[in-house]
Amino acid sequence: MHQGSGFLTPRQRRLAWIGFLLAAIQAPVSARLVADSSWLFSLCVALMVATVIIADDAARRRPADARSSD
Q1: Per the domain annotation, does 4 fall within a domain?
Q2: Is residue 32 within 8 Å of residue 13, measured between CB atoms?
Q3: Nearest in space to 19 (alpha carbons), one of 44, 43, 40, 46
Q4: What is the count of structural domains for the chain?
Q5: Which residue range forms the structural domain that includes residue 59?
Q6: Residue 28 included in any domain
Q7: Is the model's pLDDT at 15 over the cut of 90?
Q8: At the top level of its lineage, which domain of life is listed (predicted)?
Q9: Is there a contact between 3 and 62 (Cβ–Cβ < 8 Å)?
Protein backbone atom coordinates (compact mmCIF):
# COMPACT_ATOMS: atom_id res chain seq x y z
CA MET A 1 0.00 0.00 0.00
CA HIS A 2 1.51 3.30 -1.12
CA GLN A 3 1.24 6.43 0.91
CA GLY A 4 -0.09 9.60 -0.64
CA SER A 5 2.06 12.62 -1.22
CA GLY A 6 1.45 15.84 0.62
CA PHE A 7 0.73 19.15 -1.02
CA LEU A 8 4.09 20.60 0.05
CA THR A 9 7.30 19.78 -1.75
CA PRO A 10 10.22 18.68 0.45
CA ARG A 11 11.79 22.13 0.07
CA GLN A 12 8.55 23.90 1.03
CA ARG A 13 8.15 21.55 3.97
CA ARG A 14 11.68 22.34 5.19
CA LEU A 15 11.02 26.09 4.83
CA ALA A 16 7.73 25.72 6.71
CA TRP A 17 9.54 24.06 9.61
CA ILE A 18 12.19 26.78 9.64
CA GLY A 19 9.49 29.47 9.56
CA PHE A 20 7.59 27.77 12.37
CA LEU A 21 10.68 27.51 14.56
CA LEU A 22 11.68 31.13 13.93
CA ALA A 23 8.20 32.47 14.69
CA ALA A 24 7.86 30.25 17.76
CA ILE A 25 11.20 31.45 19.11
CA GLN A 26 10.53 35.09 18.27
CA ALA A 27 7.21 35.26 20.14
CA PRO A 28 8.51 34.87 23.71
CA VAL A 29 11.59 36.99 22.98
CA SER A 30 9.35 39.75 21.64
CA ALA A 31 7.01 39.42 24.62
CA ARG A 32 9.90 40.03 26.98
CA LEU A 33 11.44 42.94 25.06
CA VAL A 34 8.38 44.86 23.80
CA ALA A 35 5.81 46.48 26.07
CA ASP A 36 2.80 46.04 23.77
CA SER A 37 1.07 42.82 22.69
CA SER A 38 2.57 42.61 19.21
CA TRP A 39 4.13 39.26 20.13
CA LEU A 40 0.69 37.71 19.66
CA PHE A 41 1.10 38.17 15.90
CA SER A 42 4.18 35.92 15.93
CA LEU A 43 2.28 33.35 17.93
CA CYS A 44 -0.61 33.39 15.42
CA VAL A 45 1.79 33.01 12.49
CA ALA A 46 3.51 30.07 14.20
CA LEU A 47 0.14 28.40 14.81
CA MET A 48 -0.94 28.88 11.18
CA VAL A 49 2.31 27.42 9.86
CA ALA A 50 1.98 24.50 12.29
CA THR A 51 -1.54 23.87 10.96
CA VAL A 52 -0.19 23.68 7.40
CA ILE A 53 2.54 21.25 8.47
CA ILE A 54 -0.01 19.04 10.27
CA ALA A 55 -2.34 19.07 7.23
CA ASP A 56 0.58 18.07 5.00
CA ASP A 57 1.43 15.22 7.40
CA ALA A 58 -2.16 14.01 7.25
CA ALA A 59 -2.12 14.09 3.44
CA ARG A 60 1.16 12.13 3.40
CA ARG A 61 -0.20 9.43 5.72
CA ARG A 62 -3.37 8.94 3.69
CA PRO A 63 -3.20 6.02 1.23
CA ALA A 64 -2.45 7.12 -2.34
CA ASP A 65 -5.44 5.28 -3.77
CA ALA A 66 -8.01 3.66 -1.52
CA ARG A 67 -9.53 1.72 -4.46
CA SER A 68 -6.27 -0.04 -5.41
CA SER A 69 -7.20 -3.08 -3.26
CA ASP A 70 -9.12 -4.78 -6.18
Answers
A1: no
A2: no
A3: 46
A4: 1
A5: 10-69
A6: yes
A7: yes
A8: Bacteria
A9: yes
User: Does 16 score more than 60 pLDDT?
Assistant: yes
- 3 falls within a domain: no
Q: Could you tell me if residue 43 is inside a domain?
A: yes
Q: What is the DSSP string of the chain?
A: -PBPP-SS-HHHHHHHHHHHHHHHHHHHHHHHH-SSSTHHHHHHHHHHHHHHHHHHHHHHHSBS-GGGG-
Does the pLDDT at position 68 exceed 50?
no
CA 44 to chain centre: 12
Q: Taking the alpha carbons of 58, 59, 63, 68 in that order, is the dihedral positive or negative?
A: positive
Q: What is the pTM for the complete model shown? A: 0.77
Length of the chain: 70
> What one-letter code names the amino acid at 38?
S
